[in-house]
From TrEMBL:
Positions annotated to bind substrate: K80, K104, S359
Gene3D superfamilies in alphabetical order: 1.10.8.1210, Leucine Dehydrogenase, chain A, domain 1 (3.40.50.10860), NAD(P)-binding Rossmann-like Domain (3.40.50.720)
Family the UniProt entry places it in: Belongs to the Glu/Leu/Phe/Val dehydrogenases family.
Source species: Verticiella sediminum
Gene Ontology BP annotations: L-glutamate catabolic process
Name of the protein this chain belongs to: Glutamate dehydrogenase
Length: 426
């Protein structure tokens, strides 16, 4: 019997990043051998929860926000993935992000499925009290499906350690016992892990180093452009800068800046701490956001949002290597253009896996109540990133495919093997 191509709750004309993900699955299916008969399971999230998040604003009004938690796949372990607060969050976006978490966790071989959450709100418009009330009500609403052995949220765009602390507290109060393992990316005082805040940016930097080594680029002295100067972008920028690379351009939601001689990242970090973003930074030139993509550089790190590198700007990109710090920054059309031009793309599911890797360390430390040193964490993180990179590189060479398709081959094989050996319930 034929099944429907798309779930009825999606609009085929507005699939957004979910459409990108579906194309990525189609590209990997021919490489899955007999497991391909299970591939349809990758195209449907296991569980999708949409919740209403009402709060009383400081001015006495009642406001309602839309919240989501999607568990894409839990064949290999509990759901794992961040929570995003952004005014443009949609169900299709959260679905795609949850699916990329399944792929990422399997590609790096962490014992997790994939999940993601979001609230459709611009947190910059909220007071601290309003932000806390939204976080707590959202956590209560999704409390029926999350838990340390069910689904473990973490920070993503516009969420941080404080928000994880409120989530952990809300869940624990509802459960009647302190459950530190329900979220990762917590403050250290609550069972957070050393190195977690920096982990994604550190992983991006390690992945860039591995790519540079194999693609004939000397990291020292190389020119790097970075879109996004938040948690991921700013950490990666600092590590590139400290390793002797020149960060020549940075773009964030406030604008784009450029300095051919290299930007002093420590100085830019102090600027962004006292301003809303990179705009207005005096020691670099302001450039048009559209021109950012045309700037000369060796390594480009998109570390902001999805669908930033498209068929419209891929032809202008000068970089020899693109390292995807963000999730889903490159559309399939742009992927093809860049690949044809010989640009090496290190895909998100590999490049930004450092965050979830240290989240995994945090979860393990919480369960055993035994905490590791920062050096131990960084060393284990770097080893896992390097080994995963080498394994994906080999699969790409063996099958003559891109690193993205190779990462999907590794991941989808692991997910579908688990699916097959577990069997369908009941
Ligand atoms: N935080 C993590 O551990 C983690 C892990 C894996 C992947 N990611 C991905 O990395 C990306 C960035 O996450 P983050 O945690 O650094 O978020 P963040 O909120 O700390 O930073 C986001 C950055 O993107 C910039 N930005 C937002 N809109 C923009 C626009 N339209 N144009 C240019 N810049 C814009 C913001 O100014 C900010 O500098 C996201 O795609 C996220 O899913 C994050």
């Amino acid at each position: 019997m034929a099944t429907h191509d798309l779930p009825s709750y999606l609009d085929p004309n507005h699939l957004g990043p979910w459409g990108t993900y579906l194309q990525q699955v189609d590209r990997v299916t021919p490489y899955l051998g007999p497991l391909a008969r299970w591939a349809e399971t990758l195209k449907r999230p296991k569980r999708t929860l949409i919740v209403d998040v009402p709060i009383e604003l400081d001015n006495g009004e009642i406001a309602h926000f839309e919240g989501y938690r999607v568990q894409h796949n839990t064949s290999r372990g509990p759901g794992k993935g961040g929570v995003r607060f952004h005014q443009d969050v949609t169900l299709a976006e959260v679905m795609a992000l949850s699916a990329w978490m399944s792929i990422k966790n399997a590609a790096i071989n962490l014992p997790y499925g994939g999940a993601k959450g979001g609230v459709r709100v611009d947190p910059r418009q909220l007071s601290r009290g309003e932000l806390e009330r939204i976080t707590r009500r959202y956590t209560s609403e999704i409390g029926i499906i999350i838990g340390p052995t069910k689904d473990i949220p973490a920070p993503d765009v516009n969420t941080n350690a404080q928000i994880m602390a409120w989530m952990m507290d809300t869940y624990s109060m509802n459960e009647g016992s302190t459950a530190t393992g329900v979220v990762t990316g917590k403050p250290i005082s609550l069972g957070g892990s050393l190195g977690r805040t920096e982990a994604t940016g550190r992983g991006v930097f390690v992945a860039a180093g591995e790519a540079a080594l194999r693609h004939g680029v000397n990291l020292r002295g190389s020119r790097v452009s970075i879109q996004g100067f938040g948690n991921v972008g700013s950490t990666a920028a600092r590590l590139f800068h400290e390793a002797g690379a020149k960060v020549v351009a940075v773009q964030d939601h406030t604008g784009s800046i450029h300095c051919d001689a290299g930007i002093d990242i420590h100085d830019l970090l102090s600027h962004t701490q006292s301003h809303d973003g990179v705009a207005g930074y005096g020691a670099a030139d302001a450039v048009d956001n559209a021109d950012f993509w045309r700037l000369d550089c060796d390594i480009l790190v998109p570390a902001a949002l999805e669908s930033q590198i498209t068929a419209a700007n891929a032809g202008d990109i000068k970089a020899r290597i693109v390292v995807e710090g963000a999730n889903g920054p490159t559309t399939p059309g742009a992927d093809d253009i860049l690949t044809e031009r010989g640009v090496l793309i290190v895909p998100d599911v590999l490049a930004n896996a450092g965050g979830v890797t240290v989240s995994y360390f945090e979860w393990v430390q919480d369960f055993s109540s035994f905490f590791w040193s920062e050096d131990e964490i960084n060393q284990r993180l770097e080893r896992i990133m390097r080994e995963a990179f080498a394994a994906v590189w080999q699969v790409a060479a063996d099958n003559k495919v891109s690193l993205r398709t190779a990462a999907f081959i590794v991941a989808c094989t692991r997910i579908l093997q688990a699916r097959e050996v577990r069997g369908l319930y009941p």
